[in-house]
Structures are given as structure tokens and as C-alpha cells.
Amino acid sequence: MSAPVALITGGTSGIGKATAELLHRRGYQVIVTGQNPDTIAAAEKEFPEGVVVVRADARSLAETDRVVEEIRERFGGLDAVFLNAAIIRRLPIEADVFDEAAYDDLFSVNVKGQFFTLQKALPLLHDGGSIIFNVGIGATRGIPGGAAVSAATKGAVLSMVPSLALELAPRRIRVNAVSPGPIDTGIWAKQGMPAEVLEEVARATVSQVPLGRFGTSEEVAELVAFLASDAAGFVTGENIVVGGGVGIRS
Fold it and tell me: What terms describe the molecular function in GO for this protein (predicted)?
């Protein structure tokens, strides 16, 4: 029996990279996509042999076609798809720079990119396979600091999960979402905030986490690996939060 195959979009850093490494250790053949040349180069050096890295921009359907063709030629099919590629922009609604182009870019990557990647990959996904969306806690719980539209894109994705689960159930394909809460992936450091602001944000965030710390990419990866596996064979249409208890206080 051949090894299962997993596609991970946005898999060259953070949660995607941790998931690729974990699935590879568990016997998967893994193909990941990325757009940033620096993270692609670093991932290619750090990934073990057997993890394939393909440059692809989630905005481009032509590049998505190329990824799917690469999977067809290398592996012939798929067993799991982790739709993880996304961008975040902290842009308050009153900010002058929050224009139509910024709005469209968020939806182009986070919604259009996810939907059409899945649509194009579905013919390769074996019956009984697993689809996991990375949604994020902001889709269901408020995040301050100008994250409203980023959260809205994730909410749009989350709203597709139950309907896709019903649509694909005849093929025994399971569709679920994971919603990471405060996870230490370094992504907020890339938003251009000063170090002292980042430190204050970190303190304020941890103070709201009942478990008293940030989560790790590896902890999210463990949940994705579970949902991809036969152990989650009766789980579909669900959104599972990995957030250390954020939001459970009355």
C-alpha cells in the first residue's frame, strides 16, 4: 500500500510548516505551496527529503492548476488537503490605506484562493479523504486592532464548511476546520508594530488565556494530523478551536 499524500497550502512557515513536518514523520508524502522566496528557500533547506515545495500564489488560478498537475504527475492522487494559505492585514476601518485594493487582496487570497484550490484538487482527492481549513478564532470571536476584514474572510470560509461536508459526504470525504487562537507563529511581528507594542500585545493576549500561555504551531499540527487520519473517520462539518480556553469565561 502506497503512503498517503497530503497537500498543504501556505506550508513553508508557521502552522503549515509544522504540519508538513509532522505528517511526513507519520508516513505521508507531502507537497506544500508557498509564495515568499525567503521562506521557500529556508523551508527547502529545513524540510526532510520527501517534502516537495512548490511556489504558488493563492491568488492565481493558473498557478493552482500548475500545483494540481504537479501532484497528478508525482503522486497520482491525494488523501488530505490542508487549506492553510492566508494573509492578515491589521487595517482599522478608518485608515486611509484601507482601500478597495487592500480589501480585494484579503478576499482574493483567503477566500477565492481557498475555494478554487479545493475545487481544482477535488478530482485528485480519493474517496474517504479529508479536507481541513485553517480558519482562526477571529471568525467567531472579536479581535481588536483592525482585524475586522481579515476575520470576515475567515468567517466566509468557515460558513462553507458544513455545506461542503454535506456535499462531499456521498464520497465519504470529511470537511472540517481548525481555529487557532493565540499561537506563537511570529506572524504579528511581521505586521510592522514596534517591539514595545508587540510586547504589550503579547502580555494582554496571554492574560486572556486560561492556560496562561501562547500555543505552538506544533499543537495545531497535531489536531490537523488527527483530522486527516482515519481516527477522525466520523468527524465532519466541525470547527475545532485550539485556543487555550480563550472565550470560555462568562
Answer: oxidoreductase activity
Q: Is residue 211 part of a domain?
A: no
For the chain, 250 residues long, give each residue's pLDDT as a single digit of tens.
689 999 999 999 999 999 999 999 999 999 999 999 999 999 999 999 989 999 999 999 999 999 999 999 999 999 999 999 999 887 788 887 888 999 999 999 999 999 999 999 999 999 999 999 999 888 888 777 668 889 999 999 999 999 999 999 999 999 999 999 889 876 655 556 677 777 877 788 888 888 989 999 999 999 999 999 999 999 999 999 998 888 887 7
CA angle at residue 135 from 207 to 17, to 5 degrees? 90
Residue 43, in any domain of the structure: yes
Q: Is residue 210 part of a domain?
A: no
- The structure's pTM equals 0.92
Distance CA 51, CA 53 (A): 7
**Structural domain tally of the chain?**
1
Note whether 135 and 179 are within 8 A (CB).
yes
Domain that holds residue 90: 5-184+216-242
